[in-house]
Structure prediction request, 626 residues.
Amino acid sequence: MSVVSEPPLSAGQAAASAVVPNINLQRNPFELRAMQSVLLTGGTWLVAALGAVPLLSVIYMLLVKGGARLSPELFTELPPAGFEIGGGIGNAIQGTLVTVAIASALSIPLALLAAIYLAELRPDSHLANWARFLSKVLTGFPSILAGVFVYAAVVIVMGSYSALAGGIALAVLMLPTVTLTAEGAMRMVPQRMKDAAIGMGCTRAQVVWSVTLPTALPSVVTGIILAVARVAGESAPLLFTALFSNYWLRSVTEPTASLSILIFNFSSMPFDNQIELAWSASLVLVLIVLGFNILSRFIGRPQV
Amino acid sequence: MTVQFVLPDSRSLSRPPSAAAYLVDRVFVVVSTLGAVAIIALVAYILYQIGHQALPAIQRNGAGFLVGTSWDVQTSTFGILPQIWGTLYSSLLALLIGGFVGVTIAIFLTQDFLPPRLAVTFRTLIEMLAAIPSVVFGLWGIFVVIPFVRPGANWLNDHFGFIPFFSTSLSGPGLLPAVIVLSIMILPTVAAISQDAIGLVPYKIKEAAYGMGTTRWEAILKVIVPTASGGISSALVLGFGRALGETMALAMLIGNANQISLSLFSPANTLAALLASNFPEAAQVERQALMYAALMLLAITLIVNVIGTLILLWTQRKMVKA
Prediction:
Protein backbone atom coordinates (compact mmCIF):
# COMPACT_ATOMS: atom_id res chain seq x y z
CA MET A 1 0.00 0.00 0.00
CA SER A 2 1.33 3.31 -0.95
CA VAL A 3 1.75 5.74 1.88
CA VAL A 4 2.29 8.66 -0.43
CA SER A 5 -1.17 8.50 -2.06
CA GLU A 6 -3.01 9.07 1.21
CA PRO A 7 -3.77 12.66 2.23
CA PRO A 8 -1.87 13.82 5.27
CA LEU A 9 -3.80 13.22 8.53
CA SER A 10 -4.90 16.17 10.58
CA ALA A 11 -3.81 16.19 14.20
CA GLY A 12 -7.28 15.18 15.44
CA GLN A 13 -7.68 12.30 13.06
CA ALA A 14 -4.27 11.04 13.98
CA ALA A 15 -5.19 11.04 17.63
CA ALA A 16 -8.51 9.29 16.91
CA SER A 17 -7.06 6.57 14.78
CA ALA A 18 -4.35 6.05 17.33
CA VAL A 19 -6.73 5.72 20.26
CA VAL A 20 -10.00 4.21 19.06
CA PRO A 21 -8.86 0.66 18.33
CA ASN A 22 -7.41 0.32 21.82
CA ILE A 23 -10.52 1.44 23.76
CA ASN A 24 -12.39 -1.33 25.51
CA LEU A 25 -15.94 -0.09 25.99
CA GLN A 26 -16.91 -3.16 27.97
CA ARG A 27 -16.83 -2.58 31.72
CA ASN A 28 -14.96 -5.27 33.56
CA PRO A 29 -17.52 -6.64 36.04
CA PHE A 30 -14.77 -7.47 38.54
CA GLU A 31 -13.35 -3.98 38.49
CA LEU A 32 -13.43 -2.42 41.96
CA ARG A 33 -15.90 0.35 41.07
CA ALA A 34 -18.28 -2.04 39.32
CA MET A 35 -18.33 -4.36 42.30
CA GLN A 36 -18.83 -1.37 44.59
CA SER A 37 -21.89 -0.44 42.57
CA VAL A 38 -23.35 -3.93 42.74
CA LEU A 39 -22.72 -4.04 46.48
CA LEU A 40 -24.41 -0.68 47.06
CA THR A 41 -27.38 -1.72 44.94
CA GLY A 42 -27.78 -4.84 47.03
CA GLY A 43 -27.51 -2.77 50.20
CA THR A 44 -30.19 -0.39 48.96
CA TRP A 45 -32.59 -3.24 48.31
CA LEU A 46 -31.90 -4.47 51.82
CA VAL A 47 -32.51 -1.06 53.43
CA ALA A 48 -35.68 -0.53 51.40
CA ALA A 49 -36.97 -3.93 52.46
CA LEU A 50 -36.08 -3.06 56.05
CA GLY A 51 -38.11 0.16 55.70
CA ALA A 52 -41.19 -1.85 54.78
CA VAL A 53 -40.90 -4.25 57.74
CA PRO A 54 -42.33 -1.94 60.47
CA LEU A 55 -45.48 -1.18 58.50
CA LEU A 56 -46.10 -4.84 57.74
CA SER A 57 -45.48 -5.72 61.38
CA VAL A 58 -47.87 -3.01 62.61
CA ILE A 59 -50.57 -4.15 60.19
CA TYR A 60 -50.06 -7.78 61.19
CA MET A 61 -50.35 -7.00 64.90
CA LEU A 62 -53.43 -4.85 64.35
CA LEU A 63 -55.19 -7.55 62.39
CA VAL A 64 -54.27 -10.40 64.73
CA LYS A 65 -54.52 -8.69 68.12
CA GLY A 66 -57.08 -6.03 67.26
CA GLY A 67 -59.20 -8.27 65.08
CA ALA A 68 -59.62 -10.75 67.93
CA ARG A 69 -62.05 -8.49 69.76
CA LEU A 70 -64.06 -7.19 66.81
CA SER A 71 -67.72 -7.64 67.70
CA PRO A 72 -70.86 -5.49 67.93
CA GLU A 73 -70.25 -4.99 71.68
CA LEU A 74 -66.97 -3.27 70.89
CA PHE A 75 -68.91 -0.42 69.32
CA THR A 76 -71.84 -0.20 71.70
CA GLU A 77 -70.43 -0.76 75.19
CA LEU A 78 -68.50 1.41 77.61
CA PRO A 79 -64.87 0.72 78.61
CA PRO A 80 -64.56 -1.81 81.45
CA ALA A 81 -63.17 -0.99 84.88
CA GLY A 82 -60.14 -2.78 86.38
CA PHE A 83 -61.02 -6.46 86.71
CA GLU A 84 -64.20 -6.36 84.63
CA ILE A 85 -64.54 -8.67 81.66
CA GLY A 86 -65.82 -7.58 78.27
CA GLY A 87 -66.76 -4.02 77.53
CA GLY A 88 -66.20 -1.89 74.46
CA ILE A 89 -64.94 1.40 73.19
CA GLY A 90 -68.24 2.95 72.08
CA ASN A 91 -67.83 6.24 73.90
CA ALA A 92 -64.26 6.63 72.63
CA ILE A 93 -65.40 6.31 69.02
CA GLN A 94 -68.16 8.80 69.72
CA GLY A 95 -65.69 11.18 71.40
CA THR A 96 -63.19 11.01 68.54
CA LEU A 97 -65.93 11.73 65.99
CA VAL A 98 -67.32 14.65 68.03
CA THR A 99 -63.96 16.33 68.68
CA VAL A 100 -62.93 15.95 65.04
CA ALA A 101 -66.29 17.37 63.93
CA ILE A 102 -65.84 20.39 66.22
CA ALA A 103 -62.30 20.89 64.93
CA SER A 104 -63.49 20.74 61.31
CA ALA A 105 -66.38 23.14 61.89
CA LEU A 106 -64.04 25.67 63.49
CA SER A 107 -61.01 25.42 61.24
CA ILE A 108 -62.28 24.75 57.72
CA PRO A 109 -64.21 28.02 57.11
CA LEU A 110 -61.40 30.10 58.57
CA ALA A 111 -58.75 28.19 56.61
CA LEU A 112 -60.68 28.60 53.33
CA LEU A 113 -61.03 32.35 53.86
CA ALA A 114 -57.33 32.67 54.62
CA ALA A 115 -56.50 30.54 51.57
CA ILE A 116 -58.65 32.75 49.34
CA TYR A 117 -56.76 35.79 50.59
CA LEU A 118 -53.38 34.09 50.10
CA ALA A 119 -54.13 32.68 46.65
CA GLU A 120 -56.51 35.19 45.10
CA LEU A 121 -56.84 38.57 46.72
CA ARG A 122 -53.37 39.78 47.69
CA PRO A 123 -50.93 36.91 47.14
CA ASP A 124 -47.82 39.10 47.31
CA SER A 125 -48.70 41.43 50.16
CA HIS A 126 -46.71 41.50 53.39
CA LEU A 127 -49.74 40.16 55.23
CA ALA A 128 -49.97 37.19 52.87
CA ASN A 129 -46.24 36.44 53.12
CA TRP A 130 -46.36 36.50 56.90
CA ALA A 131 -49.53 34.41 57.11
CA ARG A 132 -48.04 31.86 54.72
CA PHE A 133 -44.73 31.69 56.57
CA LEU A 134 -46.41 31.35 59.96
CA SER A 135 -48.72 28.63 58.62
CA LYS A 136 -45.68 26.69 57.49
CA VAL A 137 -44.06 27.14 60.88
CA LEU A 138 -47.31 26.13 62.58
CA THR A 139 -47.45 22.85 60.63
CA GLY A 140 -44.12 21.88 62.16
CA PHE A 141 -45.41 22.80 65.61
CA PRO A 142 -45.32 19.89 68.13
CA SER A 143 -48.93 18.87 68.57
CA ILE A 144 -48.67 18.77 72.36
CA LEU A 145 -48.12 22.53 72.37
CA ALA A 146 -51.59 22.95 70.91
CA GLY A 147 -52.82 21.13 74.00
CA VAL A 148 -50.78 23.35 76.31
CA PHE A 149 -52.07 26.46 74.56
CA VAL A 150 -55.72 25.39 74.67
CA TYR A 151 -55.35 24.38 78.29
CA ALA A 152 -54.24 27.93 79.08
CA ALA A 153 -56.68 29.68 76.76
CA VAL A 154 -59.82 27.54 77.09
CA VAL A 155 -59.70 25.00 79.92
CA ILE A 156 -58.62 27.53 82.57
CA VAL A 157 -61.18 30.06 81.32
CA MET A 158 -64.06 27.56 81.16
CA GLY A 159 -63.03 25.96 84.42
CA SER A 160 -63.19 22.38 83.17
CA TYR A 161 -61.90 19.93 80.61
CA SER A 162 -64.31 19.54 77.72
CA ALA A 163 -64.90 18.05 74.30
CA LEU A 164 -65.05 21.62 73.04
CA ALA A 165 -61.52 22.34 74.30
CA GLY A 166 -60.31 19.14 72.64
CA GLY A 167 -61.94 20.21 69.38
CA ILE A 168 -60.33 23.64 69.55
CA ALA A 169 -56.89 22.05 70.12
CA LEU A 170 -57.36 19.88 67.04
CA ALA A 171 -58.60 22.90 65.09
CA VAL A 172 -55.31 24.69 65.84
CA LEU A 173 -53.54 21.76 64.16
CA MET A 174 -55.90 21.61 61.19
CA LEU A 175 -55.91 25.32 60.38
CA PRO A 176 -52.43 25.68 58.83
CA THR A 177 -52.55 22.39 56.86
CA VAL A 178 -55.95 23.14 55.33
CA THR A 179 -54.93 26.73 54.57
CA LEU A 180 -51.76 25.73 52.76
CA THR A 181 -53.28 22.89 50.72
CA ALA A 182 -56.32 24.99 49.80
CA GLU A 183 -54.04 27.85 48.72
CA GLY A 184 -52.04 25.44 46.56
CA ALA A 185 -55.23 24.08 45.01
CA MET A 186 -56.57 27.55 44.19
CA ARG A 187 -53.27 28.54 42.62
CA MET A 188 -53.55 25.58 40.25
CA VAL A 189 -56.72 27.04 38.72
CA PRO A 190 -55.61 28.40 35.31
CA GLN A 191 -55.24 32.17 35.37
CA ARG A 192 -57.08 32.54 32.05
CA MET A 193 -60.27 31.13 33.59
CA LYS A 194 -60.15 33.79 36.26
CA ASP A 195 -59.23 36.45 33.69
CA ALA A 196 -62.19 35.46 31.55
CA ALA A 197 -64.53 35.85 34.50
CA ILE A 198 -63.09 39.25 35.38
CA GLY A 199 -63.37 40.25 31.72
CA MET A 200 -67.07 39.49 31.82
CA GLY A 201 -67.46 41.93 34.69
CA CYS A 202 -67.47 39.63 37.68
CA THR A 203 -66.57 41.03 41.04
CA ARG A 204 -63.76 39.34 42.96
CA ALA A 205 -66.29 37.56 45.17
CA GLN A 206 -68.08 36.22 42.09
CA VAL A 207 -64.81 35.04 40.52
CA VAL A 208 -63.86 33.13 43.65
CA TRP A 209 -67.33 31.76 44.27
CA SER A 210 -68.23 30.70 40.72
CA VAL A 211 -64.85 29.97 39.13
CA THR A 212 -61.98 29.38 41.53
CA LEU A 213 -63.74 27.41 44.26
CA PRO A 214 -65.67 25.01 42.00
CA THR A 215 -62.57 24.33 39.90
CA ALA A 216 -60.28 23.82 42.88
CA LEU A 217 -62.86 21.88 44.88
CA PRO A 218 -61.50 18.31 44.44
CA SER A 219 -58.01 19.29 45.59
CA VAL A 220 -59.38 21.44 48.41
CA VAL A 221 -61.51 18.55 49.64
CA THR A 222 -58.49 16.24 49.44
CA GLY A 223 -56.52 18.59 51.65
CA ILE A 224 -59.38 18.81 54.13
CA ILE A 225 -59.78 15.03 54.32
CA LEU A 226 -56.06 14.51 54.84
CA ALA A 227 -56.08 17.08 57.63
CA VAL A 228 -59.09 15.37 59.23
CA ALA A 229 -57.31 12.02 58.99
CA ARG A 230 -54.25 13.46 60.65
CA VAL A 231 -56.05 15.02 63.61
CA ALA A 232 -58.29 11.98 64.10
CA GLY A 233 -55.17 10.07 65.13
CA GLU A 234 -53.80 12.82 67.34
CA SER A 235 -53.65 12.23 71.05
CA ALA A 236 -51.17 14.66 72.58
CA PRO A 237 -53.43 17.72 72.16
CA LEU A 238 -56.36 15.88 73.77
CA LEU A 239 -54.49 14.69 76.87
CA PHE A 240 -55.31 17.70 78.98
CA THR A 241 -58.05 19.40 76.98
CA ALA A 242 -60.65 16.69 76.36
CA LEU A 243 -59.14 14.49 79.09
CA PHE A 244 -60.98 11.14 79.25
CA SER A 245 -64.30 9.84 80.43
CA ASN A 246 -65.72 6.42 81.10
CA TYR A 247 -69.22 7.45 80.07
CA TRP A 248 -71.09 8.53 76.98
CA LEU A 249 -70.75 12.16 76.01
CA ARG A 250 -73.88 14.22 76.79
CA SER A 251 -72.68 17.75 76.22
CA VAL A 252 -69.66 19.28 74.53
CA THR A 253 -68.77 21.08 77.76
CA GLU A 254 -68.01 17.75 79.45
CA PRO A 255 -64.72 15.84 79.25
CA THR A 256 -64.85 13.15 76.61
CA ALA A 257 -63.16 9.88 75.81
CA SER A 258 -61.31 9.44 72.54
CA LEU A 259 -59.80 6.43 70.82
CA SER A 260 -56.23 7.70 71.03
CA ILE A 261 -56.36 8.54 74.76
CA LEU A 262 -58.06 5.20 75.44
CA ILE A 263 -55.17 3.41 73.72
CA PHE A 264 -52.67 5.46 75.71
CA ASN A 265 -54.40 4.81 79.06
CA PHE A 266 -55.07 1.12 78.47
CA SER A 267 -51.59 0.35 77.11
CA SER A 268 -50.06 0.82 80.55
CA MET A 269 -52.68 -1.20 82.44
CA PRO A 270 -51.78 -4.58 83.88
CA PHE A 271 -55.04 -6.23 82.70
CA ASP A 272 -55.21 -8.38 79.56
CA ASN A 273 -58.76 -7.26 78.86
CA GLN A 274 -57.71 -3.61 78.62
CA ILE A 275 -54.68 -4.44 76.48
CA GLU A 276 -56.91 -6.34 74.06
CA LEU A 277 -59.27 -3.39 73.90
CA ALA A 278 -56.29 -1.07 73.24
CA TRP A 279 -55.39 -3.20 70.22
CA SER A 280 -58.98 -3.21 68.95
CA ALA A 281 -59.18 0.55 69.44
CA SER A 282 -55.93 0.88 67.46
CA LEU A 283 -57.40 -1.17 64.65
CA VAL A 284 -60.54 1.00 64.56
CA LEU A 285 -58.46 4.19 64.70
CA VAL A 286 -56.13 3.08 61.92
CA LEU A 287 -59.11 2.02 59.80
CA ILE A 288 -60.67 5.48 60.28
CA VAL A 289 -57.43 7.26 59.41
CA LEU A 290 -56.60 5.03 56.44
CA GLY A 291 -60.21 5.22 55.28
CA PHE A 292 -59.94 9.00 55.10
CA ASN A 293 -56.60 8.71 53.30
CA ILE A 294 -57.98 6.36 50.67
CA LEU A 295 -61.07 8.54 50.26
CA SER A 296 -58.81 11.53 49.61
CA ARG A 297 -56.99 9.63 46.88
CA PHE A 298 -60.26 8.95 45.07
CA ILE A 299 -61.49 12.52 45.30
CA GLY A 300 -58.11 14.03 44.57
CA ARG A 301 -57.77 12.53 41.08
CA PRO A 302 -57.11 15.51 38.84
CA GLN A 303 -60.27 16.39 36.93
CA VAL A 304 -59.25 19.57 35.15
CA MET B 1 -80.64 32.99 12.39
CA THR B 2 -78.53 35.54 14.20
CA VAL B 3 -78.60 36.01 17.92
CA GLN B 4 -79.98 39.34 19.02
CA PHE B 5 -77.83 40.86 21.78
CA VAL B 6 -79.62 44.17 21.77
CA LEU B 7 -83.15 44.54 23.03
CA PRO B 8 -85.74 45.99 20.65
CA ASP B 9 -85.68 49.41 22.27
CA SER B 10 -81.86 49.34 21.84
CA ARG B 11 -81.11 48.97 25.57
CA SER B 12 -78.00 46.84 26.21
CA LEU B 13 -78.21 43.61 28.22
CA SER B 14 -74.88 44.25 29.87
CA ARG B 15 -74.91 46.14 33.08
CA PRO B 16 -72.42 46.91 35.82
CA PRO B 17 -72.57 44.81 39.01
CA SER B 18 -75.48 45.79 41.20
CA ALA B 19 -75.01 47.67 44.43
CA ALA B 20 -75.67 44.43 46.28
CA ALA B 21 -72.89 42.68 44.34
CA TYR B 22 -70.50 45.48 45.24
CA LEU B 23 -71.49 45.20 48.88
CA VAL B 24 -71.03 41.42 48.90
CA ASP B 25 -67.64 41.89 47.28
CA ARG B 26 -66.53 44.41 49.91
CA VAL B 27 -67.65 42.19 52.78
CA PHE B 28 -66.02 39.19 51.12
CA VAL B 29 -62.66 40.92 50.78
CA VAL B 30 -62.75 42.14 54.38
CA VAL B 31 -63.73 38.72 55.74
CA SER B 32 -61.04 36.83 53.88
CA THR B 33 -58.45 39.38 54.91
CA LEU B 34 -59.55 38.70 58.47
CA GLY B 35 -58.96 34.99 57.79
CA ALA B 36 -55.33 35.71 56.93
CA VAL B 37 -55.00 38.03 59.92
CA ALA B 38 -56.45 35.29 62.14
CA ILE B 39 -53.52 32.97 61.40
CA ILE B 40 -51.00 35.59 62.43
CA ALA B 41 -53.11 36.48 65.47
CA LEU B 42 -53.36 32.82 66.44
CA VAL B 43 -49.59 32.34 66.43
CA ALA B 44 -49.14 35.53 68.44
CA TYR B 45 -51.84 34.45 70.90
CA ILE B 46 -50.24 31.01 71.33
CA LEU B 47 -46.90 32.62 72.13
CA TYR B 48 -48.58 35.07 74.49
CA GLN B 49 -50.61 32.45 76.35
CA ILE B 50 -47.77 30.00 76.89
CA GLY B 51 -45.37 32.81 77.80
CA HIS B 52 -47.89 34.39 80.15
CA GLN B 53 -48.56 31.10 81.94
CA ALA B 54 -44.85 30.37 82.19
CA LEU B 55 -43.99 33.83 83.56
CA PRO B 56 -44.23 32.96 87.29
CA ALA B 57 -41.97 29.95 86.74
CA ILE B 58 -39.52 32.02 84.72
CA GLN B 59 -39.34 34.58 87.51
CA ARG B 60 -38.96 31.90 90.18
CA ASN B 61 -36.45 29.62 88.45
CA GLY B 62 -34.73 31.91 85.99
CA ALA B 63 -32.06 30.47 83.72
CA GLY B 64 -31.18 27.87 86.35
CA PHE B 65 -34.23 25.99 85.06
CA LEU B 66 -32.33 25.12 81.91
CA VAL B 67 -29.34 23.60 83.70
CA GLY B 68 -31.10 22.10 86.74
CA THR B 69 -31.21 18.33 86.77
CA SER B 70 -33.96 17.47 89.25
CA TRP B 71 -37.72 17.61 88.84
CA ASP B 72 -39.07 17.41 92.36
CA VAL B 73 -42.60 18.52 93.14
CA GLN B 74 -42.15 18.13 96.91
CA THR B 75 -39.39 20.71 97.14
CA SER B 76 -40.52 22.66 94.06
CA THR B 77 -37.12 22.37 92.40
CA PHE B 78 -37.49 22.15 88.68
CA GLY B 79 -34.80 21.72 86.08
CA ILE B 80 -35.05 20.43 82.54
CA LEU B 81 -31.49 19.65 81.52
CA PRO B 82 -32.16 15.86 81.47
CA GLN B 83 -35.24 16.43 79.30
CA ILE B 84 -33.41 18.75 76.93
CA TRP B 85 -30.61 16.18 76.72
CA GLY B 86 -33.10 13.35 76.17
CA THR B 87 -34.97 15.32 73.49
CA LEU B 88 -31.82 16.16 71.53
CA TYR B 89 -30.13 12.77 72.05
CA SER B 90 -33.15 10.69 71.03
CA SER B 91 -33.92 12.95 68.05
CA LEU B 92 -30.31 12.87 66.83
CA LEU B 93 -30.14 9.09 67.05
CA ALA B 94 -33.52 8.80 65.31
CA LEU B 95 -32.30 11.18 62.63
CA LEU B 96 -29.20 9.03 62.13
CA ILE B 97 -31.29 5.89 61.51
CA GLY B 98 -34.45 7.37 60.00
CA GLY B 99 -32.47 9.85 57.90
CA PHE B 100 -30.21 7.17 56.45
CA VAL B 101 -33.08 4.80 55.66
CA GLY B 102 -35.30 7.65 54.40
CA VAL B 103 -32.71 9.03 51.98
CA THR B 104 -31.84 5.51 50.82
CA ILE B 105 -35.50 4.83 50.12
CA ALA B 106 -35.78 8.13 48.25
CA ILE B 107 -32.85 7.06 46.04
CA PHE B 108 -34.37 3.58 45.69
CA LEU B 109 -37.66 5.04 44.47
CA THR B 110 -36.28 7.66 42.09
CA GLN B 111 -33.30 5.96 40.45
CA ASP B 112 -35.06 3.20 38.49
CA PHE B 113 -34.44 0.38 40.94
CA LEU B 114 -38.06 -0.68 40.57
CA PRO B 115 -40.43 -0.72 37.60
CA PRO B 116 -42.57 2.45 37.81
CA ARG B 117 -45.72 0.58 38.84
CA LEU B 118 -43.98 -1.13 41.76
CA ALA B 119 -42.28 2.11 42.76
CA VAL B 120 -45.69 3.77 43.12
CA THR B 121 -46.90 0.89 45.29
CA PHE B 122 -43.83 1.07 47.49
CA ARG B 123 -44.18 4.83 47.80
CA THR B 124 -47.78 4.42 48.92
CA LEU B 125 -46.62 1.88 51.50
CA ILE B 126 -44.14 4.39 52.96
CA GLU B 127 -46.79 7.13 52.89
CA MET B 128 -49.13 4.85 54.83
CA LEU B 129 -46.48 4.73 57.54
CA ALA B 130 -47.06 8.45 58.03
CA ALA B 131 -50.79 7.86 58.48
CA ILE B 132 -50.39 5.54 61.47
CA PRO B 133 -51.15 7.47 64.66
CA SER B 134 -48.42 8.02 67.21
CA VAL B 135 -50.23 6.10 69.99
CA VAL B 136 -50.53 3.05 67.77
CA PHE B 137 -46.77 3.14 67.22
CA GLY B 138 -46.40 3.45 70.98
CA LEU B 139 -48.55 0.39 71.58
CA TRP B 140 -46.67 -1.53 68.90
CA GLY B 141 -43.39 -0.44 70.47
CA ILE B 142 -44.40 -1.72 73.89
CA PHE B 143 -45.52 -5.14 72.67
CA VAL B 144 -43.28 -5.74 69.66
CA VAL B 145 -40.13 -3.61 69.69
CA ILE B 146 -39.22 -3.88 73.38
CA PRO B 147 -39.44 -7.71 73.55
CA PHE B 148 -37.64 -7.90 70.20
CA VAL B 149 -34.61 -5.78 71.11
CA ARG B 150 -34.29 -6.74 74.77
CA PRO B 151 -32.23 -9.97 74.39
CA GLY B 152 -29.76 -8.32 72.01
CA ALA B 153 -29.49 -5.24 74.19
CA ASN B 154 -28.83 -7.24 77.32
CA TRP B 155 -26.27 -9.39 75.52
CA LEU B 156 -24.44 -6.23 74.44
CA ASN B 157 -24.58 -4.96 78.01
CA ASP B 158 -23.21 -8.23 79.38
CA HIS B 159 -20.29 -8.43 76.97
CA PHE B 160 -19.55 -4.83 76.08
CA GLY B 161 -20.80 -3.03 79.19
CA PHE B 162 -17.57 -1.05 79.39
CA ILE B 163 -18.63 0.97 76.31
CA PRO B 164 -20.72 3.92 77.62
CA PHE B 165 -23.47 3.32 75.05
CA PHE B 166 -24.13 -0.16 76.41
CA SER B 167 -23.49 0.56 80.09
CA THR B 168 -26.93 -0.38 81.43
CA SER B 169 -29.32 -3.22 80.79
CA LEU B 170 -32.69 -2.73 79.09
CA SER B 171 -35.33 -3.61 81.63
CA GLY B 172 -38.34 -2.48 79.62
CA PRO B 173 -38.98 1.03 78.34
CA GLY B 174 -35.80 2.84 77.42
CA LEU B 175 -34.01 5.00 74.91
CA LEU B 176 -33.38 2.31 72.28
CA PRO B 177 -37.00 1.25 71.64
CA ALA B 178 -38.01 4.92 71.69
CA VAL B 179 -35.34 5.78 69.12
CA ILE B 180 -36.31 2.87 66.87
CA VAL B 181 -39.97 3.90 66.84
CA LEU B 182 -39.06 7.56 66.46
CA SER B 183 -36.88 6.84 63.43
CA ILE B 184 -39.74 4.90 61.82
CA MET B 185 -41.99 7.88 62.42
CA ILE B 186 -39.68 10.43 60.77
CA LEU B 187 -38.79 8.12 57.88
CA PRO B 188 -41.80 9.05 55.69
CA THR B 189 -41.12 12.79 56.13
CA VAL B 190 -37.46 12.43 55.17
CA ALA B 191 -38.23 10.06 52.28
CA ALA B 192 -40.99 12.28 50.83
CA ILE B 193 -39.03 15.57 50.88
CA SER B 194 -35.83 13.87 49.62
CA GLN B 195 -37.75 12.29 46.75
CA ASP B 196 -39.01 15.72 45.72
CA ALA B 197 -35.48 17.11 45.94
CA ILE B 198 -34.00 14.30 43.84
CA GLY B 199 -36.89 14.63 41.39
CA LEU B 200 -35.85 18.26 40.80
CA VAL B 201 -32.40 17.23 39.53
CA PRO B 202 -32.51 17.75 35.75
CA TYR B 203 -32.44 14.50 33.83
CA LYS B 204 -29.63 15.67 31.55
CA ILE B 205 -27.26 15.98 34.51
CA LYS B 206 -27.74 12.29 35.20
CA GLU B 207 -27.41 11.42 31.52
CA ALA B 208 -24.20 13.43 31.29
CA ALA B 209 -22.79 11.46 34.19
CA TYR B 210 -23.73 8.14 32.64
CA GLY B 211 -22.31 9.35 29.32
CA MET B 212 -18.96 9.86 31.01
CA GLY B 213 -19.00 6.16 31.89
CA THR B 214 -19.88 6.34 35.57
CA THR B 215 -21.39 3.37 37.31
CA ARG B 216 -24.91 3.77 38.69
CA TRP B 217 -23.61 4.52 42.17
CA GLU B 218 -20.91 6.91 41.04
CA ALA B 219 -23.65 8.89 39.31
CA ILE B 220 -25.87 8.78 42.41
CA LEU B 221 -23.25 9.56 45.03
CA LYS B 222 -21.08 12.02 43.12
CA VAL B 223 -23.61 13.80 40.92
CA ILE B 224 -27.26 13.36 41.89
CA VAL B 225 -27.08 13.46 45.67
CA PRO B 226 -24.71 16.47 45.76
CA THR B 227 -27.01 18.32 43.32
CA ALA B 228 -30.02 17.57 45.51
CA SER B 229 -28.09 18.12 48.75
CA GLY B 230 -29.96 21.31 49.66
CA GLY B 231 -33.34 19.62 49.50
CA ILE B 232 -32.06 16.52 51.26
CA SER B 233 -30.60 18.54 54.11
CA SER B 234 -33.87 20.40 54.55
CA ALA B 235 -35.60 16.99 54.63
CA LEU B 236 -33.25 15.97 57.42
CA VAL B 237 -33.76 19.21 59.35
CA LEU B 238 -37.55 18.97 59.06
CA GLY B 239 -37.41 15.30 60.08
CA PHE B 240 -35.34 16.33 63.07
CA GLY B 241 -37.95 18.95 63.93
CA ARG B 242 -40.64 16.30 63.79
CA ALA B 243 -38.65 14.03 66.08
CA LEU B 244 -38.17 16.84 68.62
CA GLY B 245 -41.90 17.41 69.02
CA GLU B 246 -43.05 13.80 68.90
CA THR B 247 -44.90 13.06 72.09
CA MET B 248 -47.10 10.05 72.64
CA ALA B 249 -44.94 7.22 71.33
CA LEU B 250 -42.06 8.56 73.38
CA ALA B 251 -44.13 9.03 76.52
CA MET B 252 -45.07 5.35 76.19
CA LEU B 253 -41.62 4.00 75.36
CA ILE B 254 -38.84 6.10 76.82
CA GLY B 255 -39.42 5.29 80.48
CA ASN B 256 -39.85 8.84 81.83
CA ALA B 257 -36.72 8.89 83.97
CA ASN B 258 -35.14 12.28 84.46
CA GLN B 259 -31.51 11.31 84.08
CA ILE B 260 -28.65 12.10 81.77
CA SER B 261 -26.99 9.02 80.39
CA LEU B 262 -25.17 8.06 77.24
CA SER B 263 -26.48 4.52 77.52
CA LEU B 264 -28.88 3.47 74.79
CA PHE B 265 -30.63 1.08 77.13
CA SER B 266 -31.37 3.30 80.11
CA PRO B 267 -34.72 5.03 80.52
CA ALA B 268 -34.70 8.75 79.73
CA ASN B 269 -37.20 11.56 79.17
CA THR B 270 -37.97 14.26 76.64
CA LEU B 271 -39.59 17.67 76.95
CA ALA B 272 -42.74 16.57 75.14
CA ALA B 273 -42.99 13.32 77.10
CA LEU B 274 -42.52 15.25 80.35
CA LEU B 275 -45.46 17.47 79.42
CA ALA B 276 -47.63 14.50 78.45
CA SER B 277 -46.98 12.50 81.60
CA ASN B 278 -46.89 15.27 84.24
CA PHE B 279 -49.33 17.90 83.02
CA PRO B 280 -52.68 16.20 83.71
CA GLU B 281 -51.99 15.70 87.43
CA ALA B 282 -49.84 18.75 88.07
CA ALA B 283 -50.73 21.35 90.69
CA GLN B 284 -50.30 25.09 90.16
CA VAL B 285 -46.54 25.46 90.77
CA GLU B 286 -45.55 22.43 88.75
CA ARG B 287 -47.92 23.46 85.99
CA GLN B 288 -46.17 26.81 85.65
CA ALA B 289 -42.84 25.01 85.45
CA LEU B 290 -44.30 22.75 82.75
CA MET B 291 -45.42 25.84 80.83
CA TYR B 292 -41.81 27.05 81.02
CA ALA B 293 -40.69 23.67 79.64
CA ALA B 294 -43.32 23.99 76.87
CA LEU B 295 -41.90 27.39 76.00
CA MET B 296 -38.42 25.87 75.67
CA LEU B 297 -39.78 23.06 73.48
CA LEU B 298 -41.50 25.69 71.35
CA ALA B 299 -38.25 27.67 71.03
CA ILE B 300 -36.18 24.62 70.03
CA THR B 301 -38.65 23.32 67.43
CA LEU B 302 -39.29 26.80 66.09
CA ILE B 303 -35.58 27.37 65.44
CA VAL B 304 -35.14 23.97 63.80
CA ASN B 305 -38.25 24.33 61.63
CA VAL B 306 -37.44 27.86 60.52
CA ILE B 307 -33.96 26.68 59.49
CA GLY B 308 -35.47 23.73 57.59
CA THR B 309 -38.06 25.90 55.83
CA LEU B 310 -35.45 28.50 54.88
CA ILE B 311 -33.10 25.86 53.42
CA LEU B 312 -36.03 24.46 51.44
CA LEU B 313 -37.05 27.88 50.08
CA TRP B 314 -33.44 28.77 49.28
CA THR B 315 -32.74 25.56 47.38
CA GLN B 316 -36.02 25.71 45.50
CA ARG B 317 -35.16 29.23 44.37
CA LYS B 318 -31.66 28.12 43.36
CA MET B 319 -32.99 25.09 41.44
CA VAL B 320 -35.56 27.17 39.60
CA LYS B 321 -32.86 29.62 38.53
CA ALA B 322 -30.50 26.82 37.40
About this structure: Confidence is low (pLDDT under 50) at residues 1-6 of chain A.
